[in-house]
Amino acid sequence: MTKWIFSVFGCALLAMPSAACGLRVLTEDLPPYQVVKNHQVVAGSAYLQVEAILRSAGLPCRTEVLPWARSFELARSQPNTLIYSLARLPAREHLFVWLAPLIQADYRFFSADHKVIEQIQQGQSPLDFIAVAVAGSMMDSALQQLGFVPEQNLIHVKDVNAQWKMLQIQRAQLTLAFEPDFKALADLKVRQTQFFASRQVVQKIQLYLAAHPQTDPVLLEQLRTAVEQQASQGLPVNVSGR
Question: Which of 103, 143, 170, 240 has the most Cβ atoms closer than 10 angstroms to its Cβ?
């Protein structure tokens, strides 16, 4: 009986931050912007900006770490859900309330084989190679727009660690990415591998904190006010349009 009481009490304590917050906050492992240890975000520039916004808004929320495709689907379908760092693309414009730009990322082609990058820079089509991308990500969409076809010359994986692992073991020959903090990736062999990047930036993308459009208007107003306060204090969060 005593154990049962402590168990219920412990579950109640775990539930308290989410209930007090009123929002579900989702992200993925994406170093250096979100650095995850033991399934929790512990560092990263985007994480720190979002934490500052939530604190300023008086919302004691915890970030959940999920595979990106799952995070995106939940944020797209469930009211009172926040997601970061989400690429702001024309096809997504109406799907979210775009609260604050967090990062501008330069996306280049990367490979574990310098010859692949050299050949692309000399004019060979990237479509001649096998690419890898996190399923449902901006990189996935961008590669498909370039002509890559899933299950033909595009491999889908669940997260950024698997993305770089596929390059390291040469199951894929290239990916589209910003340069991560390789030291924060999970696999030791991946951290020890030298990856090569194209000189040309393929895309410049702004990554955002965004909300489901049916999120509680009171909570949205708290978040917008917090974003404005961060900007007025000179902190690295820009105010987006309402």
Answer: 143
Q: Look up the domain containing 189 and give its range.
A: 106-203
CA atoms within 13 A on the CB side of 187: 14
Find residue 24's DSSP bridge partners. 81
Q: Please state, in angstroms and rounded to a whole number, the distance separating the CA atoms of residues 160 and 164.
A: 6
Is residue 14 in some structural domain?
no
Integer angstrom CA distances of residue 184 from 13, 21, 204: 30, 29, 23
DSSP single-letter state for residue 182? G
CATH of the domain at 160: 3.40.190.10
Name residue 209's amino acid.
L
Q: What is the pLDDT of residues 56-102, one digit of tens each?
A: 999 999 999 999 999 999 999 999 999 999 999 898 999 999 999 99
Residue 9 lies in a domain: no
| The pLDDT of residue 83 | 98
| Distance in angstroms (rounded) separating the CA atoms of residues 75 and 69 | 10
Token pair for 136? 């449902």
User: Is residue 124 within 8 Å of residue 68, measured between CB atoms?
Assistant: no
Whether residue 218 sits in one domain with residue 172: no
Could you read off the pLDDT of 176-210 as tens digits, one per residue? 999 888 988 889 999 999 999 999 999 998 999 99
Alpha-carbon gap, residue 111 to 200, rounded angstroms:
14
